[in-house]
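anyone seen this seq b4? input:
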Amino acid sequence: EVQLVESGGGSVYAGGSLDLSCRISENTVRYVGWFRQTPGKEREAVASVYIAGGTQHYADSWKGRARIFFDNAEKTVHLEMKDLRPDDTAMYYCAARPSGYSWDALSRGTYSYWGHGTQVTVFA
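predicted toks r here
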């Protein structure tokens, strides 16, 4: 089974930056994504990357504020976030799936494997 280990969460003031990392146990996955969730709300997509080709997908609110990429040597997916806002405060989860298409790369329900999450807090 694919194991995902997140790191890099923390606290920052509005306008700041944070980098999240997700180490994957094997390269058999096809897509790796980052999702976030706040209490009482559904988990929503931030970004995803196609491991083999590097194609990136971003939720509208993250376009221009995030960058996702895969480091093959480290077997790690990085999510660089900038211009953070207080409403970006959430638990951020890494997820992976062994198949799928680009048109549903941000669909939460298509991901099979999930990490435990890392907290991101943005102060006003």
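The longest strand covers residues 90-97. The radius of gyration is 13 Å. kinda curious what u guys think
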